[in-house]
Each structure stands twice: as C-alpha cells, then as structure tokens.
Amino acid sequence: CLLLVVVGLLASCLFVLFSHPFFPSRFCTDCERIPEASLPPDAAYDSCRCTLTARPCCLGRYGQCILTTKERCDFERGYYSDSAELCSQVDCMQAVCGLGEFAKKEHPDQWYRLILPMFMSVGVIHLVLLLLAEVAIGLDLERMAGWHRFGPIFIISGIGGYMISGILLPYNVEMGSNGCIYGLLGALIVELINAWQRIEDPFYQVFKLVVVIAFSLGIGLLPYVDNFSHIGGLVFGLVRCVLK
Fold it and tell me: What is the arithmetic mean of pLDDT over 112-126?
C-alpha cells in the first residue's frame, strides 16, 4: 500500500510538472495552450511558439475573403490584413470599395458613386472620345436649350444610367459620361419632335439620329462595354426632357 501511495504521488507530481504552462515540452503544438507573450526567449520553448503566415485577404470586386500569405495576396492584387486572424474580423466590402466608411456594413451606402464616375475615364483615349462626343452632341443642344436645362439633363441621365447598370450589373466597374451622352441623344429626340414643323427635312434628321444611336448601342455589345448604362441614360434623358 505504501508503494502504491508513493507511485501515485510521483505520478501526480510529474503530471503537474509537465502540464505547467511554462514547461518547455517538445510535445507542445497548440499555440493557444501557452500565451506566446509569456514564453521566455529560450530556444527550448521554440516548439511552443507559433507564427501566423496566413491572414485574411480580400480579393476581387465581390469582396471574397480567404486566408493566405501576404505574397499570394499581393500577387492576386488583394487587400491583406496584418492585424486580423479570421475573415470574420475584416470587412472586405469596405476594404475593396474605400472612399469613406459605410453607415451600415451590411448595406453599402456610398451614394456619391453615382456622380463621381461621370467625371472620370479609364484612360486618355476614352477621355478624348467622350469629349469629342460631348462637343459634337452637346454644343448645339446647350445653345438651343440653355445651360439651365442642359446641366440637369446631363447629370440626371448619368445618374439614371449608373442606377440601371448598378441594378442589372452590380459587380461591373464602370466610369465615364457615357450615360450622360446618351441622355443628350434622348434630349435631341425630344427637341426634334418639338421642332418638327420648323425643320426643312425632319425625316432625314430622324434617320441620322437613329443611325447614331444604333451604331452607339452596337458598340455597347463589345466586351467590357455596358449597354445598360447607355440605355438607362437615353431613357432618363428622354423622360427629363418630356417632363421639363
């Protein structure tokens, strides 16, 4: 009996010793078992240390979150979080969108994104084409309608085009005043109808306008070109001119 008591005491002592959080056990593999900040700088404790190499990375326009290394995240052109450890600790939609904080993380509310893209372009060629179209279509229209009518038509058509595009193609990245220009085309249709009796050859003018609109919508069938914003701008431009 005395031998059993001694063996039991010895086993209890060994269990307490090996289970102590600061014992340098070579079987220590659980990083959460021992706080790394409490470990002394001794090589014997290296088996109890843990280095995180994978952290949350937000990828693409969908705000997808994966756990990966910083090198892969940079290669994928993602947004790497140095401080978080889990995807539940980051807001990928906020990281991808930027331009200020959301009032509610579940519902992006950056309404100014409907206005800012109208004054941006994807490159020099795109900018030059937009400016040429605005001058060719908008110059005479502004002279006829006045700046106080031209401005609202331009802005409302652009916002309407991006609203339609945002509903039907929510993950497309777009910029430019394409919807605004189509809104000006819609305004030209209304002006043509109003001045029908005063135009020398109205059917020829209608034909030219239809050809321009059809050609422009045909270009919209190319990849990376959004026809929904074009059609939305055209409709909003028409409605704005009809309602005056």
Answer: 85
